[in-house]
Amino acid sequence: MRLIALLLLVTPGVTAVYGIKLIRDALFGEFHTIFFHIAIQGLVGILFVVGGLAFIGGFILHRDRKRNLTKGRFKQKD
């Protein structure tokens, strides 16, 4: 069970890291042939970073809610 949880967190983490690489390459003008334009490469990089961080944050929040570790601000409403 812990291995599955680790894989669930590593995959979006690697995606977020690749997104940072795409953003950096777009800023310094290194174009990947997969994308049609360098601006599209930067936008895909931003989406990868935001998506990866949102997934990891949502996973941690769900786990903390389940274990009653959140403060009143993040409690689920009935």
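Second entry:
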Amino acid sequence: MAADTFPPNVNGAARFVERLAAGLVRRGHTVHIVAPAASRKHGVFQETHDGATMTVHRLFSLRWLPHDWLRFALPVVIQRNAARILDEVKPDVVHSNSHLIIGRGLSMQAAKRGIRIVATNHLMPENMIEFTVIPKWSRGALIRWAWGQTRSILGLAESITTPTRNAADFLEKNTGLRNVLPISCGLDAELYTPSFAPRTENRILFVGRVTGEKHIDVLIRALGRLPQHLDAKLTIVGGGDQKRNLEVLAEQLGLADRVTFAGYVTEEELRASYTRASVFAMPSIAELQSIATMEAMASGLPVVAADAMALPHLVHDGENGFLFTPGDVDEMAARLTDVLEAAPERLDAFKNESLRLIQAHDINRTLSTFESLYRGEPVTNAAADHQPEQARDEA
């Protein structure tokens, strides 16, 4: 499995690779991860992730200075490193989860050796641009070039996947590739603890990278426009380059005492944060699935999310929460108010619907689907996308 980002990195792509790899190990497969070294220490290690031990090939890496933590393997030697690893391991299949550096090298070398390739896309070039020093006037050309590179590398794969139908359509539109399979990242819902206890306070929770594409500023501004009697408080879990800017914004809006920047937390602390929360908020406009939103749903939370990218596949307006127009502070505030002022019976209905919807994203379904792809077996549309209740009734 090729990954340009892998734990200890904290992001959706790294989490997906970790969970998938651990699940495959528990099913008896031998899994090798190829990823950048998390420090100067590189080599081959036996590492335990998500409770499973696997072999991790940590390649020499350097910090990407425009980003607050990202490290990258060296492109100039990736072909040599990929060839060496493939010849040593002799895998039955290569699963690329990145097409920039490591996934590019392993895919090209696997194609030369006739090794089956499965590729999962987690990246939109538009998001990558944020962490470059490229002038704005040239970014359009760079994005077009990046999509062309995406097409050439993903085109080597026998099967191409991405987390949702919406993301698959977006990928096909921008690359010209066809038959992209939507396969949910999946999660083990049993690890999360819903709470139906009566509310004693109003806690809004955001979990994710603290970066520009997440539009957390919209959420903070919306907090300031909630009715005062709600006395709502916001907890932001995660780290990123926008943390200081958002702290300043909270101070300027007089909200510093109501916004907590928790930073990175342990898995146990994260699950406890979900259980304590009243509502989960996701203002991002660039989610190819949003594992954090799935975790919130598994914790029985109503969700208020931007009506963008993959989020409408998870949040069904009026059923397990609400959607709002991306960037619209007043509308987000109104939808948060709808949840926080909801009668107990309606709030329980939101929670139960989140729990019902998340069942289709069971990690075992995801694991079985990828096992079929690794064997070269055809799979049907594996997306766990759902229509809202009204649409299902009409159908």
